[in-house]
Design a protein that fits this description.
Order of helices and strands: EHEEEEHHHHHEEHHHHHHHH
Number of strands: 7
Shape: globular
Distance between the termini: 62 Å
Largest sheet: 5 strands, antiparallel
Structural class: alpha+beta
Radius of gyration: 19 Å
Strand order of the largest sheet: 1-5-4-3-2
Helix content: 40-55%
Length: 297
Amino acid sequence: MKPKEFTINLPVQEYDLDATLLSGQAFGWEVSAAAWSGVVAGRWVQLRQVARGIRARTVADSGDWNWLREFLQTEVDLAAVLGSFPKEDEHLQRAVACCRGLRLLRQEPWECLASFILSSTKQIVQIRQIVRLLRERFGTPVIVPDGIAAEYAFPTAAQIAVLSEADLRACKMGFRAPYLLAAAQRVHSGEIDLAALAALDVTEARRELMRFAGVGEKIADCVLLFAYGFPAAFPVDVWVRRVLVDYYFRGRPVKEPRLRRFIEQHFGANAGYAQQYLFHFIRTQDSKRLSPPAGAA
DNA sequence: TCCCAGGCTGCTT
DNA sequence: AAGCAGCATGGG
């Protein structure tokens, strides 16, 4: 039986779909012929940038489209967010001028947590590869249109909790396998309720996330920002640390507490957005200007 | 061959 | 508390 298709135009100004889906916050999206396809809330969906916004195509009964608006955060007033950035910061303003339209997504907490547990000391292309293997092997198939290859949802905590460490290692995740397995078991057993973290303040939610083995400050901040939408969460990975030191500390070594103090005082209420602009900017535009990694010549 | 990747853990000082 | 090796796997 041919699945019924639904399409909609989501009107939105200043939304760069490519930058958003390529900026290292979500790992399950694939592009072909200028259209992105992925799975949101258990539904296959295809997204295309059009003149006045985003055109979406899906199958099966979608009722309303709020699940997609929520994921894409199309209701966010980007101009207001960018306007809250420090105006005297020429580095950040350059990143904004370069990447304007880059957005933060609002992802499902389990998928986001699991993905970032897999992210430590991995390149983005490899994280994508691991996530793809997990979906194909253990995820629930989703309904796709005729002529589209089979697609799978990210496996739930319940689906991963019953696997063996060897099953997971076979997806090339190496030493991260026991971390992912333990996290899935904690969530599946009900020991921790990820949905309930949304009601906590950011400090408490961060503490809860860091109770997962394999989750430290950086991964916790990623989940706080990309899944729960805490706007001040500011993940500091090797790239962001490098750019902060280079731009704001003249390349001189900075200890963690001082860096954290600077972030809180300098970037303001939407620090998380600022972080994403800096991250994407240096990775796509300004990588050559950056100081070499520690230890390099 | 070597260094590095959207880091974290556990063991040393 | 602060520094550091080890950890799997693949890319450049």
